[in-house]
Amino acid sequence: MAAQREEITRLLQQWSSGNDQALHELIPLLHKELRKMAKAYLAREWDAKSWQPTQLLNEAYLRLVNCQQVTWQDRAHFFRLAAKKMREILVDYARKKRLKKMGGGNVRIVPIEEATQIQSKGTDTVDLIVLDAALEQLEALDPRKSEIVEMRFFAGLTVDEIAETLGVAVSTVHRDLHLAKVWLFRAIHDGKIDES
Question: Within this chain, do residues 180 and 134 fall inside the same structural domain, yes or no?
Answer without folding.
Answer: yes
